[in-house]
Design a protein that fits this description.
Layout lengths: L11 E4 L20 E6 L2 E2 L6 H7 L7 E2 L8 E2 L3 E4 L6 H6 L3 E13 L5 E13 L2 E6 L2 E6 H6 L1 E4 L4 E9 L2 E9 L2 E3 L3 E4 L2
Parallel strand pairs: 6-13
Antiparallel strand pairs: 1-2, 1-6, 2-3, 4-5, 7-8, 8-9, 8-10, 10-15, 11-14, 12-13
Amino acid sequence: MGAVVAAPIVSAYDEGSITNGWGSQAFDDEGVPTQKTLVIEEGRLAGYLYDRLRAREAGAAPTGNGRRQSYRHIPIPRMTTTYIAPGRSTPEEIIAATPRGFYAKSLAGGQVEPASGNFVFGVAEGYLIEDGRITAPLRGATLVGNGIDILMKIDMIAGDFDVKTGICGKDGQGVPVGTGQATLRIAEMTVGGTG
């Protein structure tokens, strides 16, 4: 705990008790009440997500994250609704402060290697930013990087917080989840593409 894993402006939570949240429920699949768990506080590792087994092994309390796809699967520690806390900037301020960049408005799926944190995500809708303005649309873009490296490069976060729904796959199981954040700026990142 306490290791620097993100930029100082980043705080992140996993919250399984959000009313009507796609990844929310009152209790996890082991009967533990779900809760709001602080994972990153001002850039530092602040907590882990536990099921009963991993909590016992770590000498910690379970966090309500023992989830499984169905009765045929064993519960394992899983996210519920995981999000980066909103910041103080506006999306317009972030765009205006970016001389040249790429605005990824929506993603089209991707893949993360949990052991390394390396990822690749397709961009469903993206635009070029030039001189602080959104200009041309770009097709076929892909975002490539490492989770910790990218978290360290976040330098602006807006307050326009939103949660998207999805399915998280782990150990051959899929469970409903939510992921949330506001508009944010990553100072540097690899953007690939086909055209």
